[in-house]
């Protein structure tokens, strides 16, 4: 169902220091933020139906699709001929489509990047897909998502090439201008800009240069994303980029940290003032038989679950936890496709409701207590990573003073 409203209305309901609880109203209904957006790259969440995503107890309000993949197959025009992506997916709630920029990293060996745009070679048949900024916007206009993304020049965060980062940052600004000019459905679709600039957060560094340019264009941009992260960079650099961007981006517009799906990262980014997140992690890890739980991860294929009659999480209200034991899932995940579907459903339910609980803590003025309880469960020995302690201190939450936290002095790269 379409709402007879402006393309985007963003209302901040309550703040706790920098953390925000908001309502983002789009043409297909309200989205409560902070929000995690499940990824349906090719127009579907693998293993789940739209009804499972829409109905209680899941109640997902927004999904993600990918312009590159949808334009490759079945094709943007074919999706438009079907009535748009909402009808194609049988999804009457909100959709965000990525521009295809991330594929410059994930499909780097198949991409040629120039000032004009990107030329991709299809990995299966070698066919060429030309993706200029104008093409990306045209495809996204055809596909019909509620939020569309500007095409950006993406460089892997761990690349050691200052000249390439400089080129990509300034090209991203030039491409944004071309995207704004090409966007033909401003009354229905919201074009978000993506801040690039690598890990350079110095006063005159690339992130600040990109932010300066975007702020000059803020009247033409309904929302902003923080890109170029979640690629394996050190967490100290990660949070400092998020901190800079959330501090400088307009307070009255949504802020989207792209590619972030680990609960710890989301807690920190929300504390710093971010609103939106997406990642394939919850669904992908579910397909491999690993469940997300408040204390970390539960590997259902392990022998420890073989005779365990408890649900994944006794406090979880998802249909998987209501109907299946760990022992049953242990067998299903090893031998049946149903197992992957059931654990995926649990993981996405966990993420969506984790975000709602965090949102309610902001509204009720107890976000700091929520964060401390989350950390207590995730790090029962008190060994919270130093980067996390430092980031939360900047956000107004001092874990060291309030508890017996034993700060990790080394970076934890594989904390999941």
Description:
This protein has 2 domains: 8-278, TIM Barrel; 287-383, no CATH class. Helices cover 40% and strands 18% of the residues. It is built from 17 helices and 16 strands. It has helices spanning 50-54, 67-72, 76-81, 85-89, 103-106, 133-143, 162-182, 206-216, 235-248, 263-271, 281-287, 319-323, 326-335, 337-363, 367-378, 386-394, 399-402, and strands at 8-16, 19-26, 29-33, 35-37, 62-66, 94-98, 111-113, 118-121, 128-131, 147-149, 190-195, 223-226, 255-257, 276-278, 290-293, 296-299. An 8-stranded parallel sheet has the order 4-14-13-12-11-10-6-5. Helix 11 runs antiparallel to helix 14 and helix 14 runs antiparallel to helix 15 (367-378). The radius of gyration is 21 Å and the shape is globular. Mean pLDDT is 92; it is low at 409-416. It is an enzyme of class 2 (transferase). Substrate binds at residues 98-102, 152, 196, 228. Its EC number is 2.4.2.64.
Rg, alpha carbons: 21 Å
Strand order of the largest sheet: 4-14-13-12-11-10-6-5
* Gross morphology: globular
Q: Which range does the strand content fall in? A: 15-25%
Helix content: 25-40%
Structural class: alpha/beta
Distance between the termini: 38 Å
Q: Can you tell me the CATH superfamily of the largest domain? A: Queuine tRNA-ribosyltransferase-like
Quickly count the helices.
Answer: 17
CATH classification, class level of the largest domain: Alpha Beta
Give the number of DSSP strands.
Answer: 16
The CATH topology of the largest domain is TIM Barrel
Q: Which residues form runs of ≥5 with pLDDT under 50?
A: 409-416
- Going by CATH, the architecture of the largest domain would be Alpha-Beta Barrel
Mean pLDDT: 92
Domains counted in the coordinates: how many?
2
Largest sheet: 8 strands, parallel
């Amino acid at each position: 169902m379409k709402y007879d409203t402006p393309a985007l209305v963003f209302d901040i309901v309550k703040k706790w220091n920098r953390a925000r609880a908001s309502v983002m109203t789009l043409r297909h209904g309200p989205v409560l933020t902070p929000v995690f957006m499940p990824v349906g790259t090719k127009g579907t969440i693998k293993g789940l139906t739209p009804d499972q995503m829409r109905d209680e107890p899941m109640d997902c309000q927004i999904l993600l699709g990918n312009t590159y993949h949808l334009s490759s197959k079945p094709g943007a025009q074919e999706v438009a001929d079907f009535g748009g992506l909402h009808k194609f997916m049988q999804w009457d709630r909100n959709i965000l489509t990525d521009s295809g920029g991330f594929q410059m990293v994930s499909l780097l060996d198949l991409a040629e990047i120039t000032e004009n745009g990107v030329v991709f070679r299809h990995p299966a048949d070698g066919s060429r897909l030309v993706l200029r900024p104008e093409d990306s916007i045209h495809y996204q206009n055809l596909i019909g998502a509620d939020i569309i993304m500007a095409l950006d020049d993406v460089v892997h965060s761990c690349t050691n090439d200052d000249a390439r980062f400089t080129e990509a940052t300034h090209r991203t600004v030039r491409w944004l201008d071309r995207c704004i000019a090409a966007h033909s459905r401003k009354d229905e679709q919201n074009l978000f800009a993506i801040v690039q600039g690598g890990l350079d957060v110095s006063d005159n560094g690339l992130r600040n240069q990109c932010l300066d340019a975007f702020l000059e264009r803020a009247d033409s941009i309904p929302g902003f994303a923080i890109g170029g992260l979640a690629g394996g960079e050190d967490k100290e650099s990660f949070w400092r980029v998020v901190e800079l961007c959330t501090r400088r981006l307009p307070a009255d517009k949504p802020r989207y940290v792209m590619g972030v799906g680990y609960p710890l990262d989301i807690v920190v980014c929300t504390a710093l003032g971010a609103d939106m997140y997406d990642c394939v992690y919850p669904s992908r890890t579910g397909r491999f038989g690993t469940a997300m739980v408040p204390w970390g991860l539960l590997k259902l294929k392990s022998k420890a679950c073989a005779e365990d009659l408890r649900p994944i999480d006794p406090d979880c209200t998802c249909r998987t936890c209501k109907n299946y034991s760990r022992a049953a899932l242990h067998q299903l995940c090893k031998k049946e496709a149903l197992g992957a579907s059931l654990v995926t459903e649990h993981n996405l339910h966990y993420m969506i409701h984790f975000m709602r609980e965090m949102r309610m803590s902001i509204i009720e003025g107890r976000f700091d207590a929520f964060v401390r309880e989350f950390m207590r469960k995730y790090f029962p020995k008190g060994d919270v990573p130093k980067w996390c302690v430092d980031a939360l201190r900047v956000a107004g939450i001092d874990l060291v003073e309030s508890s017996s936290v034993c700060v990790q002095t080394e970076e934890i790269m594989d904390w999941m």
